[in-house]
């Protein structure tokens, strides 16, 4: 019997909520069991559900509980619950904050349906999804072999600092090097890991085990 991946969705825009539910329900092997207009409503419905979802899909900007508060409460009550952030917010620091808050994946609302299916499947199977990383050579190497990119100690340290709220200038001070040196290490990491943003570096750091999902 085929395994059904159960989904819960929270979004304060009814058209978006119903649209996402219809799209996911059309994927083979998926079932949308819970829908809510905000994070608190979602949490309350999950608390009395007979069967918990495998993945929670939530927006960032919502009334009552926004995405951050929703994630915080979900991870406190159900530490192993997987979550996908589906939003129009593409500010890099917002993406990093979501991953630091425990999100397993991030996807923009204007993404095509097949990418949503890919994100949900990846989160269910591997526990992580970010489109920039998923399309990189690193992702496929991590999926299919034990061959890891060779990183220097400074590059690994920069990867770990990218996971924080520190600016690049503050990271340079922490590493006791110049901002120009930080930029050089960052460029090297971009080349080795096949990404082009700090958020991509954060996801790589999580995927490679250098920082935990909090």
Q: Distance between termini?
A: 34 Å
* Average pLDDT score: 86
The largest sheet has its strands arranged as: 2-1-3-4-5-6
Fraction in beta strands: 5-15%
Largest sheet: 6 strands, parallel
User: Rg, please?
Assistant: 18 Å
The beta-strand count equals: 6
CATH class term of the largest domain: Alpha Beta
Describe this structure in words.
The protein has 214 residues and is of the alpha/beta class. It has 2 domains: 5-127, Response regulator (Rossmann fold), CATH 3.40.50.2300; 148-207, Arc Repressor Mutant, subunit A (Orthogonal Bundle). Helix content is 51%, strand content 14%. It contains 11 helices and 6 strands. It has helices at residues 14-25, 39-47, 67-77, 92-100, 113-126, 131-134, 137-144, 153-162, 168-175, 179-193, 198-207; strands at 5-10, 30-36, 55-58, 82-87, 105-108, 129-130. Strands 2-1-3-4-5-6 form a 6-stranded parallel sheet, sandwiched between helices. α4 packs parallel to α11.
Task: Name a few traits of the molecule.
214 residues, alpha/beta, Rossmann fold, Arc Repressor Mutant, subunit A, 2 domains, 14% strand, elongated
How does the SSE layout of this entry go?
Elements lengths: L4 E6 L3 H12 L4 E7 L2 H9 L7 E4 L8 H11 L4 E6 L4 H9 L4 E4 L4 H14 L2 E2 H4 L2 H8 L8 H10 L5 H8 L3 H15 L4 H10 L7
Short précis:
The protein is built from eleven helices and six strands. The chain is of the alpha/beta class and 214 residues long. It has two domains: 123 residues, Response regulator (Rossmann fold, 3-Layer(aba) Sandwich); 60 residues, Winged helix-like DNA-binding domain superfamily/Winged helix DNA-binding domain (Arc Repressor Mutant, subunit A), CATH 1.10.10.
């Amino acid at each position: 019997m085929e395994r059904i991946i159960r989904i819960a969705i929270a979004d304060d825009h009814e058209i978006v909520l119903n649209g996402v539910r219809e799209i996911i329900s059309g994927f083979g092997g998926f079932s949308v069991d819970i829908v809510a207009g905000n994070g608190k409503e979602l949490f309350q419905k999950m608390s009395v559900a007979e069967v918990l979802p495998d993945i929670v899909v939530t927006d960032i900007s919502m009334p009552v509980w926004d995405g951050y508060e929703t994630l915080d409460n979900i991870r406190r009550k159900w530490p192993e619950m997987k979550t996908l952030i589906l939003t129009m917010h593409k500010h890099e620091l917002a993406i990093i904050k979501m991953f630091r808050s425990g999100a397993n994946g991030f996807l923009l609302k204007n993404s095509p349906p097949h990418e949503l299916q890919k994100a949900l499947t990846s989160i269910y199977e591997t526990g992580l999804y970010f489109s920039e990383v998923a399309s990189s050579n690193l992702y496929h190497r991590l999926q299919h072999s034990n061959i890891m990119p060779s990183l220097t100690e400074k590059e690994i340290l920069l990867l770990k600092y990218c996971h924080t709220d520190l600016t690049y200038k503050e990271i340079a001070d922490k590493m006791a090097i110049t901002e120009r040196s930080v930029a050089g290490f960052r460029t090297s990491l971009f080349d080795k890991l096949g990404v082009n943003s700090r958020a991509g570096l954060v996801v790589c750091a999580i995927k490679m085990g250098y920082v935990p999902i909090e």
